[in-house]
Amino acid sequence: MRERLPEYLKRPIIDTEKTRTVRKILKSNCLNTVCENARCPNKNECYTKNTATFLIMGNNCTRNCRYCNITCQKPEPLDINEPKHIASAVKELGLKYAVITSVTRDDLPDGGAGHFANCIKEIRKLSPETKIEILTPDFKNNKEALDIIINAHPDVFNHNIETVRAVFKTARPQGNYDNSLAVLKYIKENSDIITKSGLMIGLGETFEQIKETLEDLHNVNCDILTIGQYIQPSKEHLPVSKYYKPDEYEELKKLAKSVGITRYQIGPLVRSSYNAAGII
Q: How far apart are the first and last CA of the chain?
């Protein structure tokens, strides 16, 4: 039996002129958002602030992470016009800060790095003052793909570790904990791009294992950290082992500081791109 969601993890439904405007702009540009596809609890709050996290390269992922609500099926062909549509939406929304993420595309030789780069290029053509954060897959730690990202020079490079080493293979059977760390390390060692990573809690990890993961991230000079509660999307996904209480997040903030991480968003409903512009 699934444990009921605590009240502090529930968000009200917000439907205003602003949220409808954001949806209309996204629809008119034929764009996906991770807000909708991953059922983000902060979706409406972000929409009221005229922001959204764009999901590129289709709705279907080549990996089957056991916590994620995005479908694992044969991926769609890349839409070569998508970068222009993203740029148009960013301009129309008047975004000062844009976040772009993607499904994992292991079917592509560069994992989609070139498509990310094209999105960055097109946004800068139309909105040169907009800061750009990308949240990417691990590209299988392909250095050529990572070099494409470095050359495109986003303002922030985000790759989520997602969970602790002991839980990693259960949650991300096609991923690799050390690869994820290596990707963050390579970007930091070969550019001046701000790096960022995050993890979900409530998958069976211990406090000591969280500390080890934060130390691993600090050791690869990761600049920004996010931590939030895992919420089970459906009964087919990994069950929640624990709902962390609000006061425990205060302990996690102290832990982040103790290992040397000074920029972070830590809280029950924090997600990778939540209030992203506020901590760079």
A: 40
Contact 157, 193 (CB under 8 A): yes
Task: Note the pLDDT tens digit of each residue in 171-212.
Answer: 999 899 999 999 999 999 999 999 999 999 999 999 999 999
Helix (H, G, I), strand (E, B) or coil at 119: helix
What is the C-alpha to C-alpha distance for residues 267 and 249, in angstroms, rounded to an integer? 6
Task: Say yes or no: domain 14-279 is CATH 3.40.1190.20.
Answer: no
State the virtual CA torsion across 185, 186, 192, 196 in degrees, nearest 10. Answer: -50
Report how far residue 62's alpha carbon sits from residue 73's, in angstroms, rounded to the nearest whole number.
Answer: 6
Whether the pTM exceeds 0.85: the reply is: yes
Of 182, 139, 135, nearest to 160 by C-alpha is 135
3-state SS of the chain is CCCCCCHHHCCCCCCCHHHHHHHHHHHHCCCEEHHHHCCCCCHHHHHHCCCCEEEECCCEECCCCCCCCCEECCCCCCCCCHHHHHHHHHHHHCCCEEEEEECCCCCCCCCCHHHHHHHHHHHHHHCCCCEEEEECCCHHHCHHHHHHHHHHCCCEEECCCECCHHHHHHHCCCCCHHHHHHHHHHHHHCCCCEEEEEEEECCCCCHHHHHHHHHHHHHCCCCEEEEEECCCCCCCCCCCCCCCCHHHHHHHHHHHHHHCCCEEEECCCCCCCCCHHHHC
